[in-house]
From TrEMBL:
One of its GO terms (molecular function) is transferase activity. It comes from Nocardioides gansuensis. Transmembrane segments: none annotated. Keywords: Transferase. This is Amidinotransferase. The keyword Flavoprotein does not apply. It comes from the Bacteria. SUPFAM superfamilies: Pentein. Gene3D superfamilies: L-arginine/glycine Amidinotransferase, Chain A (3.75.10.10). It holds the Pfam family DDAH_eukar.
């Protein structure tokens, strides 16, 4: 199995989704809700899209842990990759968030599920840096090459180089920071809208890195182990073509398969030759999520990958607390987890 492509993920089923006004200032991808559309309609459409993503990943053979969130004060909770990442060897990172109304998206029950079902050795919590105005929004701010141990990072308010260096020292990654801007000179708010690193293929808008020398250094570092680079245009980035993630699933016969999960909008923006290169190493799984994309993120933002070893199956312990996080005894008929106390 590739260290790059996790076979299990966490999704949040947020029943009160809404584009977050607190993030609109520096997120050039964020859009307003269509005029005349009610909050209830927006939330219902988004919920259906969240369920479609979960089902598409399950159909592809990926293990999906879905957590319900009914808190109306967490409009962006559908994007858990900004506060959580997991790493081989049993390591988990918790991150400092730029928008103050996103900081209570961090949830103790998700961390408890990880400790219950996977081998977690250490949780490193950087959220205490928030009062100092220092932020690093997880695998939104960083696109991680888990094979070569490189953290590709577009510098922004949400990706401070000091905490990036600290993360890389703690988790044994090489920092690869760079400036990235659009054609209007606006900085890219999250690296994962312009880049996706898979096992054998990488999607990246190298043209949005204005420093030519740094651009070539990124290109070289991405391809050093034979990885093929699919260069994206800025127009494709605006269609969320860079906001994809490689996962490891299973065929109905139990054979391992690698998939590239992205939105339908993203796939439609790709040229046939780009699709052919991607499909040399993985199958594209595309899901339409137009409502969620109003918030400025797409399928990759919705997925927190689990790069941890599974614990051996144990006989169920019949206590109320364990039942709430035990996927063999789900609290809802479709296997979702109820929300518990915040972290």
């Amino acid at each position: 199995m590739s260290a790059q492509a996790p076979s299990a993920v966490i999704l949040i089923r947020a029943s009160n989704f809404m584009p977050n006004p607190a993030t609109a200032a520096d997120n050039a991808f964020q859009r307003d809700v269509p005029e005349g559309q009610s909050d209830a309609t927006t939330a219902a459409k988004a919920l259906a899209e969240m369920d479609a993503v979960a089902q598409a990943l399950r159909d592809a053979g990926v293990t999906v842990h879905v957590f319900d969130d009914d808190d109306h004060t967490r409009p962006d909770s559908v994007f858990p990759n900004n506060w959580l990442s997991t790493h081989s060897g049993g390591y988990v990172a918790v991150y400092p968030m730029y928008a103050s109304n996103r900081r209570h998206e961090r949830r103790a029950d998700i961390l408890e599920m990880l400790k219950s079902h996977y081998r977690v050795q250490t949780i490193v919590d950087y959220s205490g840096l928030e009062p100092d105005g220092i932020f690093l929004e997880g695998t939104g701010a960083m696109v991680l090459d888990h094979v070569s141990r490189v953290a590709y990072t577009a510098v922004s308010y949400r990706a401070d180089t000091h905490v990036l260096e600290r993360f890389c020292a703690d988790f044994n990654y090489e920092p690869m920071a760079f400036e990235a801007v659009d054609s209007h000179g606006v900085p890219v708010y999250h690296t994962n809208v312009i880049a996706c690193v898979g096992t054998d293929v990488a999607l990246i808008a190298l043209g949005m890195i204005p420093d030519v020398d740094r651009r070539e250094q990124v290109r070289e570092r991405l391809s050093v182990n034979g990885r093929t680079i699919v260069e994206l245009t800025e127009e494709q980035v605006r269609e969320f073509a860079g906001n994809a993630v490689e996962l490891c699933g299973r065929t109905p016969e139990g054979k391992r398969r690698y998939i590239m999960a992205m939105s339908g909008r993203a796939r439609r923006s790709l040229r046939p030759d780009q699709i052919a290169v991607i499909e040399e190493s993985c199958d594209i799984v595309a899901i339409d999520i137009p409502t969620i994309e109003l918030a400025g993120g797409s399928v990759r933002c919705m997925i927190a990958g689990i790069h941890l070893d599974r614990r051996p199956q144990q006989a169920p312990v019949l206590t109320e607390a364990v039942e709430a996080i035990n996927e063999d005894n789900p609290v809802t008929p479709d296997g979702r987890y109820v929300a518990m106390a915040d972290a």
